[in-house]
Write a structure and sequence with these properties.
It is a single chain. The chain contains 12 helices and 12 strands. The two termini are 31 Å apart. Helices cover 40% and strands 19% of the residues. It folds into 3 domains: 4-146, Orthogonal Bundle (Globin-like), CATH 1.10.490.10; 155-253, Elongation Factor Tu (Ef-tu), domain 3; 270-399, Rossmann fold (3-Layer(aba) Sandwich). The chain has helices spanning 4-12, 14-35, 45-50, 52-66, 75-88, 92-110, 116-146, 236-243, 279-291, 313-321, 360-363, 376-388; strands at residues 155-164, 169-176, 190-197, 202-209, 219-224, 250-253, 270-275, 297-304, 328-335, 350-351, 369-373, 396-399. A 6-stranded antiparallel sheet has the order 4-3-6-1-2-5, with helices on one face. The protein has a 6-stranded parallel sheet with strand order 10-9-8-7-11-12, sandwiched between helices.
Amino acid sequence: MLDNAARELVKATVPVLQQHGVTLTRHFYARMFAHHPELMPVFNQTSQKTGSQQQALAMAVLAYAEHIDHPEVLLPVLKLIANKHVSLGIRAEHYAIVGKHLLASIKEVLGDAASDALIDAWAAAYTQLADILIAQEQQLYQHAVNQEGGWSGWRSFIVEKKVKESDEITSFYLKPRDGGKVPLYAAGQYISVKLPVPSMEMTQTRQYSLSAAPGKATLRISVKNERGTTSRPRGVVSSLLHDSVEEGNLIDVAPPMGDYYLHEDRDTPVVLISAGVGITPHWAMLERLIETRSPRQILLIHACRHGGVHGFKQQLQQWRQAPIASCALNTIVYYENPRDSDRLASDYDRSGRLQLDEIASSHLPPDADYYLCGPVAFMQEQIGNLKRLGIDPLKIYSEAFGSGGVVA
């Protein structure tokens, strides 16, 4: 535990972190990569270029300083970070490297304001944080290895099948090259895949939700081809998967991780709310509920631009037309801008943007578990709407793709 003097010194840096946190983290990453270029493939270089990774780290450092008296408040966030670290292959020895360059960056960015006492206080604070994360990550690594079909680190998989799910989303069925089994995982979790990126002359790692229920011989991910816009760069790895990876190719895969998953230890209703490719973890949850013949009431609410980008549309249409006898499944699909061809189909229920208040009285039970996945702005809006509708925040779960998290 930190002594009072160290905690007070760390808390005293909060105003500085609020104003200059991103400057500090930008300096930190540049410094660490200059001394350890071998670590660059571990980090998302697209997020580095856009600054989202620096922003996410700055917010994490600030949150730790603000809660230094009661770091247990951050345990849910640390759980998320630990899962991400294990999925990237972060090990205990990496913390010494990060700590060295973080402390040096504090001193270099703050200059004379960074006294020896302040650096010592942050060194003690960092050690405390590192010890918490290392312990959590060791448990995750141990669990990944001990279960049947489990492993630690990277394992080579064959792309057994590649299936187009929509104009933007393609599924990849991954089978272990060694002929072994794949582990059971919690529906909603993700895997990391690692690919060589010729344009960067390095490998890059990305996380993709598993889009099928556990218990299969393969792992399935369903990836959106991020083509990019004027405000968002093209997805480096997603475009490689779509354009260059074919059936029979090999991909390195890390074991399933993630703290966003279907809670199966209850009988409350389940409401799955997604937008765009955010349907992928929910599809695994939905399949799991159907395959286990769950008696729980299930509502799938999905929003997308139009029928051309509606992932898993054909399977959902089959379920809508021939209801599953063993499950109480209801669906509500929103198309924001239906095409003329969509108007002739029965693939959606409402046009325009998702409006929870217009379906609340008849479809949103107060005792349900609510799962949200999609763009951060979408989730922030819907979480806020659910809270205003009286849903207990403790029954709302969310998953954010990319750096950072969801705050609403």
